[in-house]
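Deliverable D5.2: sample structural annotation.
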Amino acid sequence: MNRLAKNEEKSLWRELTVLAAPITLHNLIQSMVGVIDVMMVGQINNESLATVGIANQVFFMACVAIFGIASGGAVFISRAWGSRDIPQLQKITGMSLLVCLIFSISLGLTSYFEAYNILYFFSTNDFLSTYGQAYVQITSISFICTAFTIVLGVQLRCVGRSHLPMVSGGISLLVNAFLNYLLIFGHWNLPALGLSGAAIATLIARIVEMLLTMYFFRYHNPAFTHWHECFSILRAEKEHRHQAFASFLHVAFPIMLIEMLWAIGQGVYKLIFGRMGVPELAAYTVLETLLNLFSAVAIGFGNAAGVLMGYKLGIPDLPKARAYASYFIRINFILILPLSLLLFCVGTYLPSLFNMKAQEAVLLRNGLYMCAFFLSLKSYNFLMTTGIFRVGGDGKFVSIVSAISFISFGIPISLVGGLVYHWPFIVILLIVFLEENIRNLFLWRRYRTGKWLHEILKL
C-alpha cells in the first residue's frame, strides 16, 4: 500500500501549504473579480446580469482552452524543474506561449466580429443579444492578455513562485473594482456607462495583470534571465522543431480537450438555463460565480498537488509519486468538508447581496444548498484530473471519460429535460452535478489500477 511515513507527511504538508496558499488566494481573487462584477452589474437590472452571464461564457471558454494548453506545458515544466533541466523548461514555456497566443488571437477576433450571433445562440433573446454586444466586443480584446497571464503564471507556479501571480491578480482585482465603481455608475463626474463600463474596467484590469505577470516572469524567475530564452525552440533545426511541437501537442492536446469538453458542457448548460428564461439564467450566473469562489481551495490544492507530483515524476520516483497521490486524495476531503458546511449555512443569506427578485432568489438559494452537498465530490474530480492524472501523463483517458459522460448523460438528458419537458431549475442542476460524479467512478477505478502513470519523453 502506498503510504508515507509520518515525518514525510508533515514535510509534504509544509511544501503543499507553501505552494497551495498563494494559488488558493489567487483563485479567490479571480473569483472575487467575478463576484464584484456580478454584484455591481446586478444593481443595473436582471437583464444586465443575464447578459453578463452569457457574455462571460465566451471568455470562460477562451480561458479554459488556454489553461488546458498551459497545463499541458506544466506537465513537462514541473518534471523539468524537478530534475533541474532548465533548457527543457524554457523550450516548453515558449511552445505553450506560442500556441496559446495563436489560439487567443483567433478566438478574440471571432468573438469581436460575431458578438451578436454568439449571444443570440445562447438566449434567442434579441434584446439581450443587442444589449450585450458591446460587452463581448470590448472583453474580447483582452484574450491576448489572458494568454500571457495564464501561461507565464503557470510557469511561475511550477518553479515555486506561486505568490507572484497572486500579487498581480490582487492588484488586478483592486483595479477592476475601482473602475467598475467609476464607470458603471458614473462617479467622479465620469459618464455612467453601465454594462460597457464594466467591460472597459475588466479590459484595463486584465492588461494590468498581464503587465505585472510579465514583469515578475522576467525579473523574479529562477529559470529565465532573458525574454529570448522563451523562444529558443524557434531557433532549433526545422526537423527538431516540428518533432518537439508534435510531442508537446501529443500531451497538451488531450488536456486542452478535457478543458474544452468541460467548457462546452458548461456552455450547453448555460444555453439551457438561458432558454428556460431570464430568472433561471440570472440565478445560474450568480450560482456559478459563487461556486467558483467556494471552489478556490480545491483549485489551489489540486494545482499545488500537480506541481509536487511533477517534481517526483521528473526525478523520477514513481513509488513516491503514488504515495503522494494517495495522501492528496485523503487530505482533499478533510479540507473541503468545512467549506461545504459553510456554504450550506450561508446559502440562505447570499441572494440578498445581488439585488435579486424573489423568484431568482429562491432558485439561487436552492441551488446553493445543492452545491454545498456536491462540493467535496467536485473537488475530488478536480484533484484527480488536474493534480494526478494530468501530471501522470494520462490526459487521454480523462478526455475519453469526459466525452462519454457528457455525450451519453449530461448534455442529452439536460437538453431534453430543460427544453422539451421543462423540468424545474433544480432538477437540471442535479443532472449537471450527477454527470460530473459519473466521471468520478471511472477515475477512481483507473486510479486503483495504477495505469495513470506514464513516462513522458523529453522534447
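Annotation notes: The chain is about 80% helix and 0% strand. Residues 13 and 207 are 35 Å apart (CA to CA).
The annotation will be released with the project's public dataset once the embargo ends.
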